[in-house]
């Protein structure tokens, strides 16, 4: 049979106390059997927890089961813890008080802003809401009264937990150093809360590229989604531009390869032309040599002819020679 789930405040309390459970809680067989007897878990669930090899794995499995064990499981679990783990039980109760305050504050803020028809935009408005709504509500829950402008320790303790367990991790991460708040009274603590909220808003402005807090014209989730969409659009445009560049690069590579091919062809033609030029130069030289030899032979023949004519003339003979040989 499916049981109703725990109250969201109880589930959040278990989740936020996880580190405390992991550090100190030891789900022994005796402890688990006691939880079975109290109806917090079933025998099958006890066996499932026992099968885990390490203590921390057993704790994690137990905390996965508890939120589904009905609306009375949280209180029964707290009673069992009080017997052997009083410090964990105390931490659990303190965390539940914080969750309860937080839920009530959220409801009060929502009701008041709806009633006034305003949006939480600036620091002054947040201060007014805290002063007029949050502080009276927490004083009422803690059963304390205001005296000399300060509030009792019943208000200070959960407010310090909210700062150190929720706001500081939100601002600096889970590894952020806890702030020393022991010497601060309630008024100082409220100023600290406002300062942290303001710091968060300024960081949000910087991250969202807003010049001023007053530009929070929409709820923060919408502004974040808008900024993310802008970044997505920038990335998409850069991808398109990158594709264009790649296409141009491919085109240039193709053209470069073609130029290299043409250059190789031209080099081959030049080499062939040089070879032909060398051959032609050799033939021209050969022809020049033949012409020179022919000229030399012709000169010799002319000389011999002149000598022959001279000898014939001396002998009284007239030698008729064709003009081709003169």
From TrEMBL:
GO biological process: regulation of apoptotic process
Signal peptide: none
Residue ranges occupied by any CARD domain in the UniProt entry: 6-83
CDD domains listed in its UniProt record: CARD
Organism domain of life: Eukaryota
Cited PROSITE patterns: CARD
Matches recorded under SMART domains: CARD (SM00114)
GO molecular-function terms, A-Z: death domain binding; protease binding
Annotated spans, Disordered: 256-300
Basic and acidic residues composition bias: residue spans: 268-300
The name this protein goes by in its record: CARD domain-containing protein
